[in-house]
UniProtKB/TrEMBL annotation:
Originating species: Eudromia elegans (Elegant crested-tinamou)
Pfam families assigned to the protein according to its UniProt record, in alphabetical order: Dpy19
One GO CC term on file: nuclear inner membrane
Matching CDD domains: Dpy19L3
Protein name listed in UniProt: D19L3 mannosyltransferase
Keywords: Glycosyltransferase, Membrane, Transferase, Transmembrane, Transmembrane helix
A GO term, aspect molecular function: mannosyltransferase activity
Protein family (similarity comment): Belongs to the dpy-19 family.
Amino acid sequence: DPTCGRLWNTLSLAVGGIVAVCLGLLTSVYIATLHENDLWFSNIKEVEREISFRTECGLYYSYYKQMVEAASIQQGLHGLVYDNKTESVRTINILERMNIYQEVFLSILYRILPIQQYLEPVYFYIYTLFGLQAVYVIALYVTSWLLSGTWLSGLLAAFWYITNRVDTTRVEFTIPLRENWALPFFAVQIAAITYLLRTRLQPAHERWTLLAVFIATFFFSLTWQFNQFMMLIQALVLFILDCFDMLPTAKVTWLYIIQVSGLLLVCVLQFFNSMILGSLLISFNASVLIARTIQKNLKKGGLLSRLGKLLLHVLFVSCLTLLVNKVIKKILHLESDEHIFKFLKAKFGFGATRDFDANLYLCEEAFGLLPLNTFSRLSDTLLFYVYIFVLFSMTATAAIVAFQNLRYSIGSTEVEKSMEKKEDCPIVLKPGTAYNLIHTVLFGCLALSTMRMKYLWTSHMCVFASFGLCSTEVWGLILKCVRLYTSQRTSVIRYTLPVIALLYISYKFWPGIMDELSELREFYDPDTVELMNWIKSNTPSTAVFAGSMQLLAGVKLCTGRTLTNHPHYEDKNLRERTKQIYQIYAKRSPEDVYRILQSFGTDYVILEDSICYERRHSRGCRLRDLLDVANGHIMDGLGENEPDLKPSLYPRFCEEIKRNLPSYTVHFTKVFQNKTFHVYRLAKHK
């Protein structure tokens, strides 16, 4: 009965929607509770709350605090556009340099809403981030639901996301990090693209979906400085699928245009940030559209002809992308992202490097290969096993479909009609499934090569695995291969297996989640608290501080003092400045260090024993080793050195200054010391 069918679909949609919202809210509350229990955030002092925002997180939050405490919104914005406290002896535009429009928006919202008496600014900020986690989970749930056709799949995706929290998110201890703002919008964009790629979509629905894709793309681009690299991978997904006729060309073109237009709009808001204009994404998308215009008969001909044209197309697009990008960077004199390419070149074995910036990334665990224990954790929840099974099945299907498409000549405007006609064929891959398959493969490669990017992969892994377990595509194909296919048998499998998986996850992980929620800890960092309180009480508000990037972000947030350098590394001048400041941990004379610090207007320098006597990294990756090699000096300790390195004429500055020798005390006076930090005031020589 059609009426009963419509009623059942409406009821299923309502129940699935309610479950999605409830799961999103529960995830948000769960993560907020973990954060509170870990730090006792509601009971610690304001300075301790701010110190808990480590490294670059503290820098970003400081601009929110600056806007909230400004005399007016206009004055706050003026302070960001003409900022002279983030980098000493320089005035920079923070809105142009960094992705902090979210902090600006939140601070304005906090000022105009009547909530100041009930909610502290810091809680308004962190609750917004925890609220975005609800959006994230709902988007993952919806994507899985769209792919499989049942909200049971979305429920399983959400369960996997929560039980694999260690590998799917780090929001509870890095709240202001840019990716925690951006990834929820990225998940919304993927859900919208999955819906857009459905066949027989009504024109009105298609227009609204394109608008949703654009809005999600814009907010994703606005909130994270690495947006262009993530969207470049996404553009490669579209390019691969379009080459093999797996997506409608018209929709692919719209997605290319949306990516570029969203990024260019962000470029305008960021005062024409040159790093955006020189991005590979813009060059690649433009090159694809140009190449497609030139090679009009790309999708016509026999198998060998198609393969030849395809190889030529890939080569042409690659060369044109590099050429366009080179020209843009030459015109704009762009060098902001050169450290990323130096890092990639060294990481993938295209020659060793002594470049300080590249080695700084190479030696960080977060930028290393994905640890193998990640897979054992993901396997505990059955996620990895199911993911591999679904990935293998869908990859085999995609290979067969790609071969079929290349074998038979199809006009580019007929791809979607062809997909509709193939629904009765034994092997079919829906456009939405094809997109999510290549998406998970490419982002999986990124995660395997760079651990920090695993959160882009593991969350989508939950979606893809849950889809496969509940999919008629997967089980229908398998049952047909073994000649056991019936629609009833397929339905039994696609509903029974996810229920079993949900029961297993609940039984195994519910006690652990309850224990985790009942475990109470407290923030404890007395040395840093003592340092920040001393700076606020004993130094002028105009004082300039030098030190490590990570610590200085906290100094700015907690004290409002001026910095010489900071952790937002996407600027060539700042990278050169940081390398110079870090000579305080190198083997340099006191006169050299004093001259360097004076050139940046430094009043105080903070030395950290944890860096000077570092043991966290092995020899060759300690900060002092990187500086020694960059300066052409032999490294400390037992081990080999490159033959052209020479002994330094001077001892290590951070060690020797503590001996209070006259050559040091004439330039530096110790004014504060505890078990972790040593603060020296620079002499004012005429």
